[in-house]
Amino acid sequence: MSLSMRLAGLALRAAPRAFRTPEVVRRTAARRRRPSVPLTLRRLCRVREEVVAGFPVMTLTPRKPSGRELIYLHGGAFVFPLREAHWWIITALIRRTGATVTVPLYGLAPWHSVAEALPFVDAVHRAVARRTAGARVFLAGDSAGGGLALAHVIDRRNRSESQPRAVFLFAPWVDCTMSNPGIPVLERRDPMLDIPGLVYCAQLWARGLPLDAWQVSPINDTLAGLAPVHLFQGGRDLLLPDAERFAAKAAAASSPVELQVAPDGFHVYVAATFTPEARAALDGVARVVNGVE
Q1: Burial (0-12, 13-18, 19+ Cβ within 10 Å), 156
Q2: Sign, CA torsion 14/18/19/24
Q3: Could you read off the pLDDT of 201-242 as tens digits, one per residue?
Q4: Which residues pair with 58 in a beta bridge?
Q5: Which residues are CB-contacts of 104 (< 8 A; sequence separation ≥ 6)?
Q6: Using CA atoms, how far apart are residues 273 and 280, in angstroms rounded to an integer?
Q7: β-bridge mates for residue 260, sequence order
Q8: N- or C-end of the chain: fewer Cβ atoms within 10 A?
Q9: Residues 74, 145 contacting (CB under 8 angstroms)
């Protein structure tokens, strides 16, 4: 483990845990604020804010765009808005690829649910495709946003719509049932996540759908016929066992999939963009987007 990753992990352990219990989730979510683009990104990009299908969308176009397009779905267990750490990931991706990044701000639970999010993300995808006819469109997401990204890809496959060129998932939440027997073992090593709060968030997001429905837990789809999926997971992340199970199932279904594990990485470790582990993962994404791999 690099020294910077060790220090970042220690800082996370010292921070309040947002998912300890449902009550902690409710208190933390009550303080949420609408995200704003940081000044560093505004200097790097032209920022356009619009409304698509009733929800806000931010489009960040670099001053020297590469012509590539990336749709980014942020994490936050479906109840927390986009945070500073998400901007760090987005900034790193823009600097490495020159891609225009579109950020859909999907509605959060408990006021909104996956039933609204899927058509919204699809409307954003169609708008990007219309605006950039012929451009290479990629999809990325972290944690809950990674799960939503997968559900979106499955939804488009089911409707015989075009797939993104590739999908990049940073610690995706692919099974909201949290029933994998490997999870409790890792919970003790995870400096961020706790099972009770996550299950509570999943129930709010599902709103009437069973937690094992593919819209909520995309691992329960056949996973056949998907775009190439690149997963980046940390060894100290309690979502690792499901990422491993997803990769194995997708490969068995002949969908292109690659799983990279940073043994000492925590949940969405790529947000710690100052660490060698995060830089290696982000460089790997850039190689695919830039057409090197």
Answers
A1: buried
A2: positive
A3: 999 999 999 999 999 999 999 999 999 999 999 999 999 999
A4: 49, 103
A5: 52, 55, 57, 71, 73, 120, 121, 124
A6: 9
A7: 232
A8: C
A9: yes
Q: What is the pTM of this model?
A: 0.94
CA–CA distance, 56 with 37 (Å, rounded to integer): 13
Are 278 and 272 a contacting pair, CB within 8 Å? yes
pLDDT greater than 90 at residue 18: no
Question: From CA 247, how far away is CA 240, in angstroms rounded?
Answer: 11
In angstroms, rounded to a whole number, what is the distance separating the alpha carbons of residues 259 and 147?
15
- Tokens standing for residue 252: 């068995």
129-164 tens-digit pLDDT:
998 887 789 999 999 999 999 999 999 999 999 999
- Long-range contact set of residues 84-89: C-beta below 8 Å, sequence gap at least 24: 84/38, 85/268, 85/271, 86/35, 86/142, 86/271, 87/35, 87/37, 87/38, 87/41, 88/271, 88/273, 89/142, 89/170, 89/268, 89/270, 89/271, 89/273, 89/282
How far is it, in rounded angstroms, from Cα 100 to Cα 77? 25
Note whether 206 and 113 are within 8 A (CB): yes
